[in-house]
Design a protein that fits this description.
This protein has helices at 15-24, 200-209, 223-233, and strands at residues 3-4, 27-33, 40-49, 52-55, 60-63, 69-71, 91-103, 116-118, 123-126, 137-139, 150-152, 162-166, 181-184, 196-198, 217-222. The protein is α+β, with helices and mostly antiparallel strands. The protein has one domain (3-233). The strands form two sheets. Strands 2, 3, 4, 5, 6, 7, 8, 12, 13, 14 and 15 form an eleven-stranded mixed β-sheet that branches. The chain has a four-stranded antiparallel β-sheet with strand order 1-10-9-11, with no helix packed on it. It is globular and about 50 Å long.
Length: 239
């Protein structure tokens, strides 16, 4: 049986341990939107040398969920406000780790530091909260079907031609949201079902830049929420 899971260390951390992850993090991806209902957002990349952050490249646009943001289950402690739910068409807000990169190309065709999974027609992402495979990627040819909702990873529109798993709702809580990726967008301003989407050149640049040895983190939230975190943890300023 082959189950390609991305269920790794998703539990929320208390304040003092949150501070610790910023001490060890040397790559930071910041996705900020003007408000929690916005589809349009901006992505910044930062790298840390010593104790100082510097921006890598220029910020670029991304698309969030059709209904904006809701607090997801990342490494941050629980937050007040709208909470991410399965099928809510909202991208998760919070602090997250990155998982495996994936794509339709063979592994040797793209140089990455992230682990990489070549996608096949048999691979599905399970969206059924009652399934033992919830929030996992499975090879449908090698497991017994125990789900009623799933996402085909090999898509005709090629939105998953390139992508990165976001470690949200891990370990999976029922109805907490599943199958959250960075992937290709349909067009600027076109909302997703809960993922974060962008142009191909920007996604490929991000995939090639991320280095697990530098313990990268994703901070995805409103500009106001990011400002709060920035003040507490001496994070980089965004413009």
């Amino acid at each position: 049986m082959l189950v390609l899971a991305f269920l790794l260390n998703g539990s929320a951390l208390p304040f003092d341990e949150i501070l610790g992850i910023f001490d060890t993090c040397r790559q930071l991806v910041v996705v900020v939107s003007p408000n929690d209902g916005s589809v349009k957002a901006r992505l910044f990349k930062f790298e840390k040398s010593g104790k100082k952050w510097h921006q890598v490249g220029q910020a670029h646009p991304v698309n969030l969920g059709k209904k904006g943001l809701a607090w997801g289950r990342g490494v941050q402690s629980a937050k007040h406000g709208l909470q991410k739910k399965e099928g809510d068409q909202r991208s998760p807000a919070g602090i997250f780790r990155f998982g495996t990169a994936f794509g339709y190309a063979e592994a040797e065709t793209i140089p990455l530091k992230l682990p990489y999974l070549p996608i096949t027609e048999e691979q599905l992402c399970i969206e059924d909260s009652n399934s033992p495979y919830y929030n996992q990627l499975v090879d449908a040819a090698q497991v017994q079907q125990e789900w009623t909702a799933r996402e085909n990873m090999m898509r005709a529109d090629e939105q998953y031609k390139w992508g990165i798993f976001v470690k949200q709702n891990l370990p999976p809580a029922p109805e907490g949201g599943s199958c959250i990726f960075f992937h290709l967008w349909r067009a600027p301003g076109s909302g997703t079902l809960g993922c974060t989407a962008m142009a191909e050149d920007n996604l490929l640049s991000l995939m090639q830049w991320l280095d697990p040895q530098k313990e990268p983190l994703l901070m995805q939230m409103t500009e106001a929420s990011y400002r709060d975190y920035r003040k507490k943890f001496s994070l980089p300023v965004i413009y």
